[in-house]
Hints:
Blueprint: H1 2-26, H2 33-58, H3 66-83, H4 88-113, H5 117-136, H6 146-153, E1 155-156, E2 159-160, H7 161-179, H8 181-191, H9 193-198, H10 203-229, H11 240-250, H12 262-281, H13 286-307
Antiparallel strand pairs: 1-2
Helix pairs in contact: 1-12, 2-7, 2-8, 2-10, 2-11, 2-12, 3-4, 3-5, 3-10, 4-5, 4-10, 6-10, 7-8, 8-10, 11-12, 11-13
Amino acid sequence: MKIKKLLSKYGILVILLVLIVIFGAGNSAFLTVGNFINILRQIAILAIITIGMSCVLIAGGIDLSVGAQLAFVGVVSATLCTSMNVPPLLACLIGVILATVVGIINGLFISYTHVPPLIATLATQRILNGLSYIISGGRPIYGLDEKIQFIGQGYVGAIPFPVILMVVCIILGFILLNKTYMGRSFYVIGSNEEVGRLSGLKTKLVSTVAYGICGFLSGIGAIIMMSRINSGSPTVGNGYEMDVLTAAVLGGVSVSGGEGGLFGAIVGALIIGVLSNGLIILNVSEYYQMVIKGIVLALAVTFDSIKNGKIKIGGE
Length: 316
């Protein structure tokens, strides 16, 4: 029983270490300090949005619109900068606010209509995808101010600026989930919304806040992405929600709600980053990478179902 608990708690770290050993043995270039810094830079956006997705999952929801928000916010902010002469930092701030509003709308719509979160956020995804193509004309928007480039490409000493933003978001996320009333409320309504309501929690407000936080962090990720590729692209977030969901579930955040934490979710994001980086270094085709990531997501969700008793094993 003690070993089982240890595996449940630290098994995700074992998986990460095994992947590092495998890819390091396959190519010594993987084990360089420069490559590890590169991995951290690469997962910064993924980790930041995974924090938001974790809040929503813990509160009993799901948000499939986070990838579309990457594209939508990038396109809107880039358009504001290039076509409307809005100051770069203000354009970025407007983009983050817009993403937060999208998250709040998701939360309000789901809370008051009781439409399944999967369907509601899938609808939001389609709407945002369509708007991104309409605004951009289906083409990337170039010509961004050089000041914006620092957000996604700059360094503070030897540390990439996106990594610093990621660390700040992780710290704030830990404080939110572990030290605040709102964070504890996410776990309560995710475990049993009716119990939360009878306990006096404003369940609709709590759920809306979770989606708002997810939108806010998606907005930050979108600005980093726009800065990194130096354009607002309507295709940039395609399928990104699957990587975010995989990272969160792989890290032990339950799709059933009420369970999980940021430590596992961030390690899950690291596993996705290591997996992607290692496969590229080993010259594995992008198409095979998609298959492997899909298998990882399927295994993570299956393990989550077994852990929560939805799948019985051993003839039970």
